[in-house]
Design brief:
216 residues; alpha/beta; Rossmann fold; 8 helices
Length: 216
Amino acid sequence: MLLPLFLGCKGNPLESDQQQLSSEDSNQLYDHISFYESEQRHIWQKPNYVIELFGNNLENKVIADIGASTGYFTFHSLPKVKKMIAVDIDSTMVAYMKSKVTELPKDLQEKVDIRLTQPGTSALKPGEVDGALLVSTYPYIENKASFLSQIKTALKPDGKLIFIEFKNADFPNGPPDNERIEYQKLIQDLTDAGFSTQLDTSSLTYQYIVLGSIRQ
C-alpha cells in the first residue's frame, strides 16, 4: 500500500520534490510503478482485450477507470475511446498520471480526465459514462452497496460495468488472500444492486471478469 506522498505534476514524477521522500517511501513508489507498468503485465492482463469488452463504437464511448492507480488501463485505452476518466483516491497516483498526460500527443491529452476523489465516492456525474472499469479495486471499497448505486447512476441506460479481480489461487501476481473477493460474492452484490451479470473465468490467466449491465 502506498503512503500518501506528494509529488509535483511537472517533469519526472519520481524526481519532483524527491527531497521530501524518505528512501523507503521512494523505493516503495518505484516498486509500485514498476509492477503496474511492467511489460509482463501486458501479456497476462490483456488490456486491449479488456477495453474491447465494452462493445462496438468505442470511439464514441466515455469510459471510467475507477481505482486507476498509475493509469495503466487509461493510457492503453485512449487511442480506442472517445474519453477516459481516471479516478483514484491516492494523490500520488493522480500526480503521476497527470505527469504522463503531458507526454502525450495533443489529441490524446484532450481525451483524458483525471480526478482525485475520496474513499467511497465515484466522482462521476449522473449518466456521464458508457462504461466503468474496476480492476483489483472492489475488495477495498468499504460501503459497496452505496458505491454500486453511484456507479449505476453514472452509467447511461445501456452502459456496461466490468470488474476484474484475482482468482483464489497461488499465482505470482496478486494481492494476499484477504484482499481478494470470490466471484460469487461480487455477482451477488451486483444482482442486489440491480445489475445483470456475466462471468468469465478463462480469458485471463490470473483473474476473472464479471460484466454487469443495468437490469431492465
